[in-house]
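lol forgot to send this yesterday, sorry. C-alpha cells for the thing we talked abt
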C-alpha cells in the first residue's frame, strides 16, 4: 500500500522494512537504540531485527502498561541513553504500543534537547492512532498525557504482521479508535466497520484510518482547531480510563474506556449539537455488538468529574468536549456542565 505523507515524515505501510533499512543506511547514526517492553521484545523485535541490516545496537526495556508511562520510567530511559553513550547523532527506535511510542518519543525529543526517533507501532491502537500526529507524552498523578509535547518522528513504519501477536483485548481496543474515525469524519467508513472483525482486521481498513487521521493532522498539526475532533469520546473516556487504572484489579484498556466515553458523549451530542436520536441508537447498538458493558458505579461519578476538570483540553476551567452533529461529522469546543456530564454517565448506566 502507498506510503502516507504526514508532517515532514512518511508513514510507510507493509514494505517489509525495506524503507527502514534504506533510512538507516543513509543517515549513518552514531548509535542506534531500540526501546521495547517485555511483550514487544519477545514477540516483535525478533521479526524486525530479522529484516534489518544492523548488527550494532543497544536495547532499552521498560515494563508494559499505562501505569508505567510516567516520569520515573522516562528518567530510566534517559539514564540508559547516558550509560550507553548516546550523543545528539543517535537514533531511538520505539517498538511497541502507544505507551512505548508516546513515552519513547517524549524521551527522545527532550534528551540533549532532542535526538531523532522513529516509530514502529506494533498494536492496532498505536498503528491507527499514535502512529500519526507527533503527540508525545507521559501521565502524572493519574492524568493522561498531562506532560508532553508535539515532536515529529523521522518516520513511522507499520507492519500489520505484528497484529498476529496480539490478544483479542488489544485488538478491540484499537478497533475503538477506528470506529471513532468513522464517527467524526466518514459515515460510510463507520458503516463498513460495522461488518468488520476486529480480530481479523483488513490492512486496507487500517490504512484508511491512518489516512483519515492524517488528513486532520495536516490541516491542524498542533490542535488549535479542527484536530480537536479527534478528542471525541476522550474527555469522559480518559477520566474513566484513569479511574479504572486506580481502582480496578483488571483495568480497562484505552479503547474500552473510550467506548464508554463515546457513548456518553454521543448522548451529550443529542442534547447540545443536534445528533439525532436515530444516530445515537445506531452508535450505541454498534458498540454493544463489539464491547461488553462495564459497570460504572454512580458513587464514582464525583471522582470522574474531578478527573475531567483536570483534562488538558479544558479552557478557563470549563470542561471541553468534541461532540457529533451526525455520524461522520463533529463539532469542537462544546463546553459541558457538571450536570450534563452526570446525565451522560447515567445514560451509559441505563442504555
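and heres what i got for the seq, position by position
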Amino acid at each position: 500500500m502507498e506510503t502516507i505523507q504526514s508532517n515532514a515524515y512518511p508513514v510507510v505501510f507493509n514494505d517489509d522494512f525495506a524503507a527502514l533499512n534504506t533510512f538507516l543506511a543513509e543517515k549513518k547514526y552514531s548509535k542506534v537504540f531500540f526501546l521495547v517492553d517485555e511483550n514487544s521484545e519477545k514477540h516483535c523485535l525478533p521479526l524486525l531485527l530479522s529484516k534489518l541490516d544492523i548488527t550494532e545496537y543497544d536495547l532499552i526495556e521498560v515494563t508494559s502498561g499505562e501505569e508505567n508511562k510516567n516520569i520515573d520510567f522516562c528518567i530510566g530511559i534517559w539514564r540508559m541513553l547516558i550509560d550507553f553513550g548516546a550523543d545528539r547523532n543517535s537514533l531511538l527506535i520505539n517498538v511497541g504500543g502507544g505507551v512505548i511510542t508516546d513515552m519513547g518519543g517524549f524521551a527522545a525529543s527532550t534528551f540533549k534537547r532532542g535526538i531523532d526517533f522513529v516509530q514502529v507501532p506494533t498494536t492496532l491502537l498505536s498503528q491507527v492512532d499514535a502512529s500519526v500526529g507527533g503527540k508525545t507524552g507521559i501521565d502524572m498523578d493519574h492524568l493522561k498525557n498531562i506532560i508532553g509535547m508535539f515532536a515529529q518522528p523521522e518516520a513511522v513504519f507499520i507492519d500489520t504482521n505484528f497484529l498476529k501477536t496480539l490478544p483479542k483485548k488489544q485488538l478491540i481496543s484499537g478497533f475503538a479508535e477506528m470506529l471513532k474515525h468513522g464517527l467524526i469524519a466518514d459515515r460510510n467508513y463507520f458503516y463498513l466497520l460495522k461488518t468488520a472483525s476486529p480480530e481479523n482486521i483488513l490492512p486496507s481498513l487500517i490504512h484508511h484510518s491512518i489516512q483519515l487521521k492524517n488528513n486532520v493532522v495536516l490541516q491542524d498539526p498542533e490542535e488549535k482547531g479542527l484536530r480537536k475532533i479527534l478528542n471525541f469520546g476522550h474527555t469522559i473516556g480518559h477520566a474513566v480510563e484513569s479511574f479504572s487504572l486506580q481502582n480496578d484489579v483488571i483495568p480497562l484498556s484505552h479503547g474500552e474506556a473510550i467506548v464508554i466515553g463515546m457513548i456518553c458523549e454521543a448522548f451529550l451530542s443529542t442534547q447540545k449539537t443536534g445528533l439525532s436520536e436515530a444516530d445515537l441508537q445506531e452508535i450505541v447498538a454498534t458498540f454493544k455488538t463489539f464491547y461488553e458493558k462495564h459497570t460504572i458505579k454512580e458513587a464514582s461519578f464525583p471522582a470522574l468529574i474531578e478527573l475531567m476538570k483536570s483534562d488538558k483540553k479544558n479552557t478557563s476551567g470549563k470542561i471541553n468536549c468534541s461532540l457529533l452533529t451526525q455520524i461522520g461529522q463533529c463539532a469542537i469546543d462544546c463546553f459541558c456542565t457538571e450536570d450534563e456530564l452526570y446525565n451522560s454517565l447515567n445514560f451509559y448506566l441505563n442504555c
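The longest helix spans residues 254-272. anyway ping me if u want another try
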